[in-house]
Amino acid sequence: MKVTLLGTGGSAGVPMIGGADGGGDWGDCDPGEPRNRRTRSSIVVESEIGQRLLVDTSPDMREQLLRCGIPGVDAVLFTHAHADHITGIDDVRILNRIAGRPLSAFTTMATLTDLIRRFGYAFRPWEPPHFYRPVLEGRPVSHGDLFEAAGLPVQVFTQNHGRVDTLGLRIGAFGYSTDVVALNDAAFSILEGVDTWVVGCFLRRGPHWTHADLKTVLEWVERLRPRRTVLTHMGTDMDWAWMRENLPAGVEAGYDGMVLAV
Ligand SMILES: [Zn+2]
Ligand SMILES: [Zn+2]
Q1: Which residues are within 5 Å of ligand 1 (an ion), measured at CB?
Q2: Res. 206 pLDDT band, cuts 50 70 90
């Protein structure tokens, strides 16, 4: 299984819009380090036979797929309906054209309801033969469900993200937990024994009310003990060089375009 980190940034990306010269607000991140430039968080998981599951459709999705050389996807899963995870949805129509069919969209009923309210046109039935708009078929799933998506055995679990819940994923030896501030025992039991865990860590100077800070993530790692932990959804106080120097063994910062063999 191959996992590509399409984007590893927080909801505003790194740098954020702004900066004295308009070149971006980098916070504590060194603008000279290319791995500090982060688009919005999303991944692609590819099975042994080359089927691909896209997790979230970020506002940067088009550029991400082009830059990472992803020629198409077989299904989509939405972790939740925050704008930084869904607003690339219009470009799904190109993914439909490549696949030649509607694409399944796995998510919770709550997120699906929200997506249909905001992007109803993307969930109307396909009128063959063209794809002038995205065509997604909602596949509601809930905590603990184990199902096949893009040929992959996916198990989902509920994560606390402040005002809303998000879906975490377990696919074989791989775990993905973005946009999470608290994990309960049920989530930990599904993640137990995971080899490679990609986990959201928005900032090192916490706490934050919707995202885990570094201290919290390191406590989770202590409990779960994955072989490899890769941080994602990072904000502007998460400098690459600082993390390389200071993160404990087995924990590293992700970066846009990073490929993990699991
Ligand atoms: Zn997010
Ligand atoms: Zn979010």
Answers
A1: 11, 84, 179
A2: confident
